[in-house]
């Protein structure tokens, strides 16, 4: 299969990759909005120039638990979703078996959603299950890429 056929909407694996990557990106973008929502709700702004939006003369402050929990979950996304998405594209280029590839890609993205929901609601062991589900998918795809391109 040529690269143009591989990265086409006719390829089930590429379609799954494109769909679940878009879902993952949207989820990550929503985390920024949730951080802002919590900052306004709790009047906790990181920069002095941002305090004027709250309609009061507030001082910048840090350490609000609601804001920090969202920020930690978002940082965890940045540390894990980006490698998952990059290796996922490389994995698509290996022309993997459709059934396995679609499900590995799906497991990685759904695991990140589970992780985020569990993180925001302090739910263990679901947070760990979500974390390790995506790590397992990323490692699996990484090994497949290494084997295909070595």
From TrEMBL:
It is found in: Endoplasmic reticulum membrane; Mitochondrion outer membrane. The chain crosses the membrane at residues 14-34, 81-108, 128-149. Coiled coil: none annotated. It is a multi-pass membrane protein. Belongs to the MAPEG family. GO terms for cellular component: endoplasmic reticulum membrane; mitochondrial outer membrane. GO terms for molecular function: glutathione transferase activity. It comes from the Eukaryota. The keyword Phosphoprotein does not apply. Its main location: endoplasmic reticulum. It comes from Chironomus riparius. Homotrimer; The trimer binds only one molecule of glutathione. Keywords: Acetylation, Endoplasmic reticulum, Membrane, Mitochondrion, Mitochondrion outer membrane, Transferase, Transmembrane, Transmembrane helix. Conjugation of reduced glutathione to a wide number of exogenous and endogenous hydrophobic electrophiles. This is Microsomal glutathione S-transferase 1. The keyword Transmembrane applies. Signal peptide: none annotated. Its EC number is 2.5.1.18. InterPro entries: MAPEG-like_dom_sf (IPR023352), Membr-assoc_MAPEG (IPR001129), MGST1-like (IPR040162). It catalyses: RX + glutathione = an S-substituted glutathione + a halide anion + H(+).
